[in-house]
Amino acid sequence: MWLRNCWYVIAWDHEIPAADDPKLFTRTVLGEPVLVYRTGTGDIVALEDRCCHRHAPLSVGRREGDCVRCGYHGLKFDPQGHCVEAPGIEIVPAKACVHRYPVAVRNRWVFVWMGDPAKADVALLPDNFSCDHPDWKNRPGYLHYDTPYLLICDNLLDFSHLSYVHEKSLGGSTRIAQSRPVIEPVPGATADWPQMGIRVSRHVNDVPPPPFYQRFRQFDTNLDRWFVYEFLLPGTLLMHSGGRPTGAAPDAPGPSVRLHSCQTLTPETTHTTHYFFQQSHPANEGDDTVTESIYNSLIGAFNEDRDMITAQHRNILLSSARPMMPLAMDAALIQFRRLLEARVHAEHSAAIASPHPALTT
Amino acid sequence: MWLRNCWYVIAWDHEIPAADDPKLFTRTVLGEPVLVYRTGTGDIVALEDRCCHRHAPLSVGRREGDCVRCGYHGLKFDPQGHCVEAPGIEIVPAKACVHRYPVAVRNRWVFVWMGDPAKADVALLPDNFSCDHPDWKNRPGYLHYDTPYLLICDNLLDFSHLSYVHEKSLGGSTRIAQSRPVIEPVPGATADWPQMGIRVSRHVNDVPPPPFYQRFRQFDTNLDRWFVYEFLLPGTLLMHSGGRPTGAAPDAPGPSVRLHSCQTLTPETTHTTHYFFQQSHPANEGDDTVTESIYNSLIGAFNEDRDMITAQHRNILLSSARPMMPLAMDAALIQFRRLLEARVHAEHSAAIASPHPALTT
Amino acid sequence: MWLRNCWYVIAWDHEIPAADDPKLFTRTVLGEPVLVYRTGTGDIVALEDRCCHRHAPLSVGRREGDCVRCGYHGLKFDPQGHCVEAPGIEIVPAKACVHRYPVAVRNRWVFVWMGDPAKADVALLPDNFSCDHPDWKNRPGYLHYDTPYLLICDNLLDFSHLSYVHEKSLGGSTRIAQSRPVIEPVPGATADWPQMGIRVSRHVNDVPPPPFYQRFRQFDTNLDRWFVYEFLLPGTLLMHSGGRPTGAAPDAPGPSVRLHSCQTLTPETTHTTHYFFQQSHPANEGDDTVTESIYNSLIGAFNEDRDMITAQHRNILLSSARPMMPLAMDAALIQFRRLLEARVHAEHSAAIASPHPALTT
């Protein structure tokens, strides 16, 4: 159940080699191998990493200027994906080409559009501003999961797990699990999209400061904490979180902790997932040591999630037909799954009405 | 083809952590993950190791007194399997529970009942007396197999393999393979069970003493040897074996070797198996060195079996449709497979007539 | 899509242990485990490596003279595959036997006939003369592939890949890829076989000598090079290749390089393959160092092929339904695939008309 007409992050921009670097970067998205490289003008190109001739990966071949040559029988493709040379063939057939995926780069995330290229629309890109903003600092992260991406969406849509999975790492008080978040729709960014995702707002008042916050300052009172995030199709979390002394007004001056996080999930195959993330702190609070320390905490905590979700997935594989039991804390994840399902259904219906080659293979 | 309404060994009792040990023990039986722990009063509890909410394993969570709390979203289950707390939910739904498996502990084997709990009956437990008896000494063993459990049942039901698989380890004379055992039904333990298994009695007279016996004594004559065992549903072998000087009466005084062995097979999944076993010698014959030495021989020999059955299984996977050729030595294993098949069939018919939730998932 | 009524190489003759060596050699061909051993008279026997009784591999058992005894329950088979002894059974059933595969040994290749034994015909053996000929020297090679055998046939049927896959190893000039080979049918060796394979002749004139040739001599001119090979059913390449100073007549005296190579592919399972090969040089040109050096180059180059084909196979597994795009350089491989397909189809039709036990399992 994958949405195709949307943007997926395929890489952090620093993962894509420079134009003069002979290395070729490849990553599989929605089960399709995708080659990503930079042209001499700095543009990023994403091509199907599978020669149309005998399906060898182009990434095993080589760069030739802005083109790529297959390393098996030497077909050469330009950045549009057109085969411009086939050894020993005078007139290369016009249909000799590989799919070219629309690419967008925004705040260090490199996005590819996996559906109909004509529908690619930058208005649908998420606002991952803190990934690259003078007011914010972070160290980019990446993890690979051997589980389907929806199980990780579930995890991010129910922060009650903070109290248990991250009890010792992120300092999740059981008060977090006991609180109920407000859940609202995020309206669509374009006329085509009635709803873009789910907004989850959770406020937990009068709780001890988590050890995690000591990086910024010592508090001698309890805090009011907040986690306010959007979870957007196909799988992006954009979150403001923080804490201030209990009872202080939201915009009152004085000590507080304010963070912003961007995280996104990209299905690799039906059962494996790419996870890109960062947790930003204000650039004027904390030096590189703090940035590094937050990154290390995050990796530690995200490994806790991965261990749990991997164990959950093993159980699901043992008895895949057994139903889960929805509880109150699942409201957001159920709403998100319904939204995704409706969207995928609409996409399939549209594809049947007006088939596009890139969607039918 | 698994029987459900019967006892399976899930562990040796020493494998289950003490009540004050925070570790949680889990093992998969018939494809179901099962959590096993001790309460403060020393009772052993077996619960489905899969939270009803999102299917996370409870064994990744933690003990809280006699309860277990899921480490994902914090649901807490009592030893009956009832959810007694769900963070942020005032009234926990009654149907929020995990399956509780009936447990029996007998002579250091911990049994779970995988079918309808109402049918659990300790009269059906095998008499594995030598596992824990003042007259007998042994060291408990466990092996894991990457093969279906029925192939291992087959192995235990035809001791003609001793002459070949264990020619050098257990000293199986070819006379063993040439002899024909007497095969008889073992009557059922309760009215419900017309037959509990197969009794196999094999006597091999006037053969040289196996090197294995030198641990106890040197014989200067040939021996009459015997292997008399019951092989009981679902997969338990209880065996008396031994040897005495050729021609001596069974109860004549004088030198002899008398052993008792208990072995049992528990399917983990359709293609993997747990194997629990011990070979006991009389407590008044042989010190700890002898116990250890028997254990080491047994492990060596059982690895020979595992190598053979694993190689056999590989061949079966290559051509799973090819039929085997029944020969005279297969009488016991064929009778056992028929008995099991009839029993499974009866169980399915009864389940259709009167479905039970634990059997229908 | 396997042809059965034909010869497949199962081993180099030096791989089969001597008659007095207790080791037993086994290799899987077309998904069937095959035991190969030598009798006291030096004949090579190939038997189904699966006891008819419980399917244990005979190769885990032991030699007894010219017979083999199963290591599980002791059935003994003679070189015809007949069970001549079953412990404890007076009269062994006549149908207790394992399949005996016709064997042929020619120039150090050991062939087995995987179809109807009555059809086995040595006239169908390929002429792999240089494998064992006083005028030629080589070191035999073997590689295992985790890909289907047809992908490797494809590779050998289109040498345009030399210019790219082996650009640095075998010195494949891009001129090779630009040249077009002549493709002709190889007529059948018997009345039953209208066509045995494909002949591919490629001449590339006036190209620099490849570094590979410096083992034999330094050329101070460009060369005319040739690659002339037959690719025969089910997957054998027999190739003459070489180079001489540009413009020299084929049979003119003077410096040249002349090589002969035999290579053959044997499917192990649907997705794995055995690859036997050698590249010979004239015995009177080059010493053992040259032989060894050619072998090392070949292994290096064949690993380049394997890396490429394995990467190609990974892409095919990701989207197995996606069609490839035939181009001019595929002429030979397409003709070969058609020939194989027609032959397999004919074999199936004949098998339906007159079924043979060895073909229906």
UniProtKB/TrEMBL annotation, chains A, B, C:
Enzyme's top EC category: oxidoreductase
Entry annotated with the keyword Cell inner membrane: no
This protein's UniProt keywords: 2Fe-2S, Iron, Iron-sulfur, Metal-binding, Monooxygenase, Oxidoreductase
InterPro entries: Cholesterol_7-desaturase, Rieske_2Fe-2S, Rieske_2Fe-2S_sf, VanA_C_cat
EC number: 1.14.13.82
Family annotation (SUPFAM superfamilies): Bet v1-like, ISP domain
UniProt KW S-adenosyl-L-methionine keyword: no
Occurrences of domain Rieske (ranges): 7-112
GO molecular function annotation: vanillate monooxygenase activity
Protein name: Vanillate O-demethylase monooxygenase subunit
Organism the protein comes from: Hydrogenophaga palleronii
Top-level taxonomy: Bacteria, Pseudomonadati, Pseudomonadota, Betaproteobacteria, Burkholderiales
